[in-house]
Structures are given as structure tokens and as C-alpha cells.
Amino acid sequence: MQPVSDADLTLHEAAELLGVHYMTAYRYVRLGVLPAVKVGGSWHVAAADLHTFKAGASAVPTAGDTPTRRRAPWASRLEARLVAGDGRGAWGVVEAALAAGAELDEIYLDVISPAMRNIGERWESGELDIAVEHRASGIALRLIGRLGPRFARRGRTRGTVLLGTPQGERHSLPVAMLADLLRGDGWEVSDIGADLPVESFVRAAVDAHDLVAVGVSVTSADNLPAAAEVLNALRAAVGDVYVAVGGAAVVDEAHAVALGAQGWASSAQEFNAQLQGRSSSGARTG
Asked: How far, in Å, CA of 200 to CA of 232, rounded?
């Protein structure tokens, strides 16, 4: 249980200062846009959090709002819910951002990605325990699980893209988000996940139908030797198919080429741009 400080307000008091009904203030809490803690059965809001909320209150959707593109610190709000282990509140932030006009790709690129990046940096600096980072990653994966089907597109695919990480690399979240973003742009994506042995990665590439490109993601520098091994094996196995590498551990194009890749993608958008013009001639209807 967290103690109540002199600067804390009850949710009723916060609602009065905001000029809204108590249930409206409670809705803000459940959406994750107004930070609050439950103490002894009552919600309490820190005065500083209330001040921050009031400064951006115009970005909070209310009943009857017509969705428009409004600015709000969605990433920081999501980060707070993820760190708290509040899965329901995290989904509430996503719903609020969507209601405020955010597109699906913006939820991934401008909300979930920066929130998780900050959490990773806070763990590396010693501010957060690894258990908190793992819990946040689990919640983020569940968010993606709920959002992923919305990226599906009907019609002709542009070919298949294979995505995965080398053996030892367990960060699957970047690959999962990239997979959905590519699906939304018309690609058939085979996401084989994290920690793949070389033989399994190569077999998946060889067996893929209408393979256009392979993307390898590496977050930890400790896994660069494994990345080099799988990149070179892929290049030998799939011939002219484009093989690219990206992720936090790969610093630039020269680094990517030295590892054995044909190209380097610094972001999901860049990898998608590199795929333009590489559509399979055997595009099929999905």
C-alpha cells in the first residue's frame, strides 16, 4: 500500500478542481490518462499529476467527441501504466489515443515504441528492476495481440517477408510490431519470433512462398555474432532475396554490411520503404 502524502487529493477533490463529475474523473483514471493510486479503498491523485493533467486536459476524449487528431502525451501515459503493471489501464490509454484520432501505425510507432524504449533505458540505468521491464513487455505484447488483427488487409499481397531474431536474442516485441505494420501495407508476413537457431531460420526462408525479403532484428550487442552467422547463412541460401538487419545493436549501414546483410533499416518505416519495388511477381489474392 502506498502512503498518502500531504499533497495527495482524493478523487472527489480532484474532480472538483477539474470541474467535472466524479465518474468522469474516475473514467480518466481507468483510461490511464490521470495517474492515481488506490489507498484504503479510495483513489488519490498527486497534486503534481493533477496539474500536469490539467495542462493537457483538452486532449482527453469525452462522450460525444468527434475523433480528431489531438496532441497528448500518450507515450508517457502508456509508460506509466506499463511500469505500474496495469494492463487494463494500458489498454485504456490505447483506446483513448485511438478515440482522439491516432492511426494504428501511430499507436505502434509513436506510443508503444517510445514507451517501451524509455522503460528499457530506465532498466539499463538501474532505475527499474528487470522484473518490471519484463512485466511491461508482457503487457505490450498483449496490446499488440489485440491490435494486430486490425492491420489485416484483403486483396492481393505484395509477396512474403520473413522476420525473426537470431539465437539468443529474446526481444520479440520489435519484430511483432514490424510484422503488423508490413501486413497493413499489403505484405504477407511470416513472423517466426525470437531466439531462432540458424538452421531453423534458414529453413523457414527456403520454405517461404513468394519470398521477397528477410528482416533480422538484433537488440542486444551480445547477439551480434549470432546475427552475423544467420545473415551469412541466409544470404547463401536465398540468393537474390533481399536480406536486411536492424535493431538497437546495429549502428549504421556499414555495420550491417560487415555483419553480412545487404542493407540496414534504422526503423520500421525505413524497412518498409526499402521493400517498395520489390513486390513478388507472383503476388496472390489473400
From this structure: 14
Residues 272, 278 contacting (CB under 8 angstroms): no
d(CA 41, CA 95): 26
Q: Read off the amino acid at residue 114.
A: P
Residues recorded for the chain: 286
pLDDT, tens digit, 9 for 90 and up, residues 126-165? 999 999 999 999 999 999 999 999 998 888 888 999 999 9
Query: Which architecture does CATH list for 62-151?
Result: Orthogonal Bundle (1.10)
Q: What is the pTM of this model?
A: 0.74
Confidence of residue 278 (pLDDT cuts 50, 70, 90): confident
Q: Which DSSP string do the residues of 70-111 spell out, in sequence order?
A: ----HHHHHHHHHHTT-HHHHHHHHHHHHHTT--HHHIIIII
Q: For the structural domain made of 1-55, what CATH number should be given?
A: 1.10.1660.10
Tell whether domain 154-275 is in CATH 3.40.50.620. no
Which tens digit of pLDDT belongs to each residue from 203-235? 999 999 999 999 999 999 999 999 999 999 999
